[in-house]
Every structure is written in structure tokens, then in C-alpha cells.
């Protein structure tokens, strides 16, 4: 422990010159028994704005692009074969 920390610990916490007690404020402003804005805020987390729908709309076109890329890879594999596809880099290839 540093010497300054030891001195602070010996004297206790610093006095608050404003008299404002943050702990008392947090305890007093806890969760209200009835929230009048609860119904007005509920639309943000349901239906179109649910967590899943917000995640899905974060990547527009990803599904279509994935299917198109897989289709192109299949087309290339099946129909665009070179004549010397199976050969290695041997004597006949220059």
C-alpha cells in the first residue's frame, strides 16, 4: 500500500463539502411501484423492434448474398472445369 493511501485510510473518507449524499439519492430513487411511462416504452422491445428483429435488420441482404454465393460456387464446380484440372504442374504444363 502506498503511503498516501495509508494516510487516507487512517483519516477516513474525505468529507463532502456540498452535503450531497449520492447513496441516499440512489436508495430514494429506486424502482417505482408504478411506472406511468411503462406502457409508452413497451413498443421499443416488442414486435418489429424486438431484439431478434433488430439483429436481423443489422445485416440486410446477408441471406440472399449467402445463397447466391453458394449457387455460384456450385455452378463453377460443376460447369466451369478446365481441361487440365486434374493435372499437376508437371512437364507438360508451361
Automatic annotation (TrEMBL):
Tagged with keyword DNA repair:
no
Role = Accessory subunit of the mitochondrial membrane respiratory chain NADH dehydrogenase (Complex I), that is believed not to be involved in catalysis. Complex I functions in the transfer of electrons from NADH to the respiratory chain. The immediate electron acceptor for the enzyme is believed to be ubiquinone.
Q: At the top level of its lineage, which domain of life is listed?
A: Eukaryota
Q: Which GO terms describe its cellular component?
A: mitochondrial inner membrane
The entry's family comment says: Belongs to the complex I NDUFB3 subunit family.
Could you tell me what this protein is called? Answer: NADH-ubiquinone oxidoreductase B12 subunit
Keywords, A to Z? Answer: Electron transport, Membrane, Mitochondrion, Mitochondrion inner membrane, Respiratory chain, Transmembrane, Transmembrane helix, Transport
Q: Where in the cell is it found?
A: Mitochondrion inner membrane
Q: How is the protein disposed in the membrane?
A: Single-pass membrane protein
* Organism name: Trichoderma lentiforme
* Major localisation: mitochondrion
Name the Gene Ontology biological process terms.
electron transport chain; mitochondrial respiratory chain complex I assembly
Alphabetical list of InterPro entries matching this protein = NDUFB3
Amino acid at each position: 500500500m502506498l503511503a498516501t493511501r495509508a494516510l487516507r485510510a487512517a483519516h477516513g473518507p474525505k468529507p463532502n463539502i456540498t452535503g450531497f449524499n449520492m447513496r441516499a439519492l440512489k436508495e430514494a430513487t429506486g424502482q417505482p411501484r408504478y411506472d406511468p411511462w411503462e406502457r409508452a416504452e413497451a413498443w421499443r422491445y416488442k414486435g418489429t423492434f424486438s431484439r431478434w428483429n433488430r439483429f436481423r435488420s443489422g445485416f440486410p441482404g446477408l441471406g440472399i448474398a449467402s445463397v447466391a454465393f453458394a449457387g455460384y460456387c456450385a455452378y463453377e464446380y460443376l460447369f466451369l472445369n478446365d481441361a487440365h484440372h486434374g493435372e499437376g504442374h508437371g512437364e507438360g504444363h508451361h
